[in-house]
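Async update (no meeting this week)

Hi team, since we skipped the sync, here's where things stand on the single-chain job. The sequence we agreed to prioritize is pasted below, unchanged from the tracker. I ran it this morning and attached the output directly underneath so nobody has to dig for it. Comments welcome in thread, and please keep replies under the output.
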Amino acid sequence: MTLRRPATQTRPRRCPAVPRVVAALALATLIDGSEAETASAGPPDRIAAVARPNVVVMLRHANAPGIGDPDGFRLQDCATQRNLDQRGRTQAARLGAAWRAAGVRPTTVWSSAWCRCLETARLMDLGPVTVLPLLNSFFGNSGSRERQTAQLSRFIDELDPRNGPYLMVTHQINISALSGHGAETGGGILIELPVDGTPRRIWPLPAAVASAID
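Output:
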């Protein structure tokens, strides 16, 4: 399988902060109540949470059986990597369809350079996909974990909280390093960008919630 590789794009320019908008937390219906307020509202609130301009959704790629990549894999050759299976391709397409049906359209879609992430992002069909090397896997290269995670954290903090929502498709190891949360395929985390000096907040986003935005 060969995927066309998009050019790397710079981040949107940050604009002055606006009064804080608290993200709707209906997503917390499947989130640990010790970390987020559990809301009783239905799907419209889930839509509002994901669609807010000060939100970054960081998703793990769709189902790709196995762990890591084969020895000697090459980023420029998808045939040498661990890739999505049919279940993963269907999962990604359905996830994107649910978001589109709900009117959720990220202003920017970033992806790891790994083919399973790029294919997930493209099958979601939510807009042009741009490779962001900070989302690349560091599996098997623990020496880069701390440095890359710190750089990604700064990148996220510098995003314009009025210009989202933003979507990042990456790997479980990257999500865990940034947030301390695990991520199942098609799930991830929801990041509320800081505005008016408030701290950044991170909420787990189970796959069942991410795909139920309809």
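Quick observations from my side:
The two ends are 31 Å apart (CA to CA).
The helical segments are 43-51, 86-101, 115-124, 145-157, 172-179, 207-210.
Reply here if anything looks off.
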